[in-house]
Amino acid sequence: MKVTVVGLGPGAGADLTGRARRAIEGADLIVGYTAYTDLIRDEFPDKEMLSTGMKKEVDRCRMAVRAAAEEGRNVAVVCSGDPGVYGMAGLIYEVSREFAPVEIEVVPGITAACGGAAVLGAPLTHDFAVISLSDLLTPWEKIEKRLECAAEADFVICLYNPRSRGRADYLERACDIIMRSRPAGTVCGYVKNIGRSGETYRILSLGELRGCTDVDMFTTVYIGNSQTAVINGNMVTPRGYMQRGE
Amino acid sequence: MKVTVVGLGPGAGADLTGRARRAIEGADLIVGYTAYTDLIRDEFPDKEMLSTGMKKEVDRCRMAVRAAAEEGRNVAVVCSGDPGVYGMAGLIYEVSREFAPVEIEVVPGITAACGGAAVLGAPLTHDFAVISLSDLLTPWEKIEKRLECAAEADFVICLYNPRSRGRADYLERACDIIMRSRPAGTVCGYVKNIGRSGETYRILSLGELRGCTDVDMFTTVYIGNSQTAVINGNMVTPRGYMQRGE
User: Fold this and answer.
1) Is B149 on the interface with A (CB under 8 A)?
2) Beta bridge partners of A22
3) Over the stretch A225-242, which tens digit does the pLDDT of each residue have?
4) Would the CB atoms of A242 and B94 count as touching at under 8 Å?
5) Contact A145 B154 (CB under 8 A)
6) Four-residue CA torsion sign, A134, A85, B135, A239
7) Could you tell me the sign of the dihedral formed by the alpha carbons of A36, A41, A42, A47, in that order?
8) What is the interface size between A and B, counted as CB pairs within 8 Å?
9) Which residues from chain A sit within 8 angstroms of residue B150, using beta carbons?
10) Better pLDDT: B39 or B227
11) Residue A244 predicted with pLDDT over 80
């Protein structure tokens, strides 16, 4: 009948919107990556849930669309953060072409960029670029080009997937590229486990970030623009109101 | 006592997170731009609300921090979308330096980029850049540079404040800059009044967007990357799972 792609926000629970909650309540089958269905299992104990492991994205989306198109079910596909930012929303549309027509709705959630920014202070209050350092689906050269251009244009940069086992030095390489046009003293920050137990953050310089080994795959990284400052221990990018002279 | 900067999401109501709702309920004074306090007045009828008009951002933030620092109140500053994306979060930190120390918390909300993307389909499923076309606080040359670099690096581009009375031709100028590195057939979309009454959207080409007069200050605009496509009437940027050959 219908597939609703639902964003849970960074840690589900308190960051869930009313609309996301109603979409889950109204579904008769929940599909998601195991770590995400686990996030909501306690809150929706009576729901039938189908989960698959990492890197099974296409299978999982086909399973969801098939259940809607062939079994007439109301399916909610749950994603951490926002399903439209590196989430399953795009893939659900792509996969849906293989089946009889089904209605698709996307319910937005708080993406990690916004959730983590709120922990650090206000790093994204001016123009920003969001870049994933994962080269599983994107050639590294394209990622490099984006880092280079974003740094050159003085965007605040938010990095998803900054590190994983197979990509131990990608964050270092990204910092090197950015340092071609930004000083090593640029204010940076990162947040681990946003909205979940074990949430921690740190504010540091771009030079320090380059050598930082604490950043893992559950971390979101922020590189400030030329105006980003530390105010009382928070990372803040001014929008320009005060600078206008009020 | 405390200032909580709260994101209402695109249209408050259903897009409000549980955490945002509790922050408003727990505050004894709500401060915001008139259009935003109006969004929540029906839902929180007993709350004292202080609102000011457009372009009074610094006054409004000082009012909020003063009430917390000097009168010991629990103040919620409400913003449409996410307070950390062109919202009041940064300014609250800046202004707080003028007063005795107060606790500041930012409660994220669904920003227009994510809210509008969900209406169009999944335009932001790959790396993207968010750029405001308002030159009230940013020199136009800096905006041009960001448009140029974002287009060159094949980011999906999301434009906030694409047009206002004083800037009738800015969207046209932005499209001209982007068309230096993107074909006129690039898939674009826009959404008006996201999450509010009168929500409408349109999917069109970059060439059509250039001449489009329907875009106003309540519109969020999306310019696809080289892979963005139209699938069953939705704007979708593939993440690359299908292209990997599954």
Assistant:
1) yes
2) none
3) 999 999 999 999 999 888
4) yes
5) yes
6) negative
7) positive
8) 255
9) 129, 149-150, 153, 155
10) B227
11) no
Q: What is the 3-state secondary structure (H, E, C) of chain B?
A: CEEEEEECECCCHHHCEHHHHHHHHHCCEEEEEHHHHHHHHCCCCCCCEEEECCCCHHHHHHHHHHHHHHHCCEEEEEECECCCCCCCHHHHHHHHCCCCCCEEEEECCCCHHHHHHHHHEECCCCCEEEEECCCCCCCHHHHHHHHHHHHHCCCEEEEECCCCHHHCCHHHHHHHHHCCCCCCCCEEEEEECCCCCCCEEEEEEHHHHHCCCCCCCCEEEEECCCCCEEECCEEECCCCCCCCCC
User: How many other CB atoms are there within 10 angstroms of residue A232's CB atom?
Assistant: 12
Query: What are the phi and psi torsion angles at A41 (to 5°)?
Result: -60, -40
A244: Cβ contacts below 8 Å, ≥ 6 apart: B137
Residues of chain A neighbouring B244 (CB-CB closer than 8 A): 137
pTM score: 0.97
- CA separation for the pair A127, A110 (Å, rounded): 18
B6 in reach of chain A (CB within 8 A): no
Q: How confident is the model at residue B227 (pLDDT cuts 50, 70, 90)?
A: very high
Q: Which residue of B has its CA nearest to A94?
A: B231
pLDDT in tens, A22-33: 999 999 999 999
Q: Which of residues 187-206 of A touch B (CB under 8 A)?
A: none
Rg of chain B over Cα atoms, rounded to whole angstroms, equals 19
Write down the pLDDT at residue A245. Answer: 62
ipTM for the complex? 0.97
Contact residues, A window 211-230, toward B, CB-based 8 Å cutoff: none
Burial of B227 (0-12, 13-18, 19+ CB in 10 A): middle
